[in-house]
Amino acid sequence: MLYIHPVLQAVGFLVFAYALVLGLARFRAKHLHHKARFLWKRHVWAGGIAYGIWMFGFLFGAWAASSRWGSVFVTGLHGKTGLAQFLVVLAAAALGLYMHVNKAARTRLPLIHALLGAAALVFFAIQAVTGYEVLITFVMRY
Ligand code: HEM
Ligand code: HEM
Q1: Which of 14, 42, 57, 133 is deepest in the core (most CB within 10 A)?
Q2: What confidence tens digit (pLDDT) does each residue in 56-112 have?
Q3: Domain ranges of the chain
Q4: Dihedral, CA atoms, 108, 114, 90, 109, nearest 10 degrees?
């Protein structure tokens, strides 16, 4: 059971990377004036799946930890960074959905949305390192 969460979050990362590549085409076209085509619908789909997996994975990890160890935030930094990441991802997804539903010519909101995505990426790197430690010290040993 405790192995499902790490696998889920890693799969989420792969989809996130794809959404990022698609989003960077929009970034390059608008801000750097490169010739690039932004596949809007595909970006929304991939981004939605990535953020959906990460948010569900967060809840699943917390549930798995509490059902196994009887409490949440037992993993210290990993659990707390996970909460921060959950909130950042929630904000990025809400902003993305808002821009998708209310289409308009925008510069600042997409940039904020992209910065939140960059923060989520930094958090994921921390989660991968601390999560690996939790995996080898707690899950594989007991
Ligand atoms: C719920 C998921 C997501 C939705 C609904 C969404 C939606 C959008 C939309 C509608 C735009 C274009 C806005 C416009 O041109 O007015 C956009 C741009 C962008 N998105 Fe997302 N997105 C999502 C997830 C992601 C993810 C996972 C990343 C990865 C970091 C990401 C990175 C970007 C980037 C880099 C841009 C271009 C920003 C710019 O040009 O300043 N998005 N997104
Ligand atoms: C999006 C990234 C991630 C988020 C938001 C996240 C979040 C969480 C949360 C909230 C918990 C419960 C911790 C507690 O209550 O103390 C947890 C547990 C755990 N996480 Fe993560 N995590 C992420 C990525 C990873 C990765 C990449 C790994 C492995 C390399 C990992 C391994 C673990 C392990 C082994 C546990 C113990 C319980 C379980 O396996 O379900 N996590 N995580």
Answers
A1: 57
A2: 999 999 999 999 889 989 899 999 999 999 999 999 999 999 999 999 999 999 999
A3: 4-139
A4: 10
Structural tokens at position 89? 């991802």
- Per the listing, tokens 């960059």 go with 118
Pocket of ligand 1 (CB under 6 A): 16, 19-20, 23-24, 26-27, 30, 43-44, 47-48, 50-51, 93, 96-97, 99-100, 106, 110-111, 113-114, 117
| Cβ atoms of 109 and 95 closer than 8 Å | yes
CB 51 within 8 A of CB 100: no
Percent of the chain with pLDDT strictly greater than 70: 99
- 80, 131 contact by CB (below 8 A): no
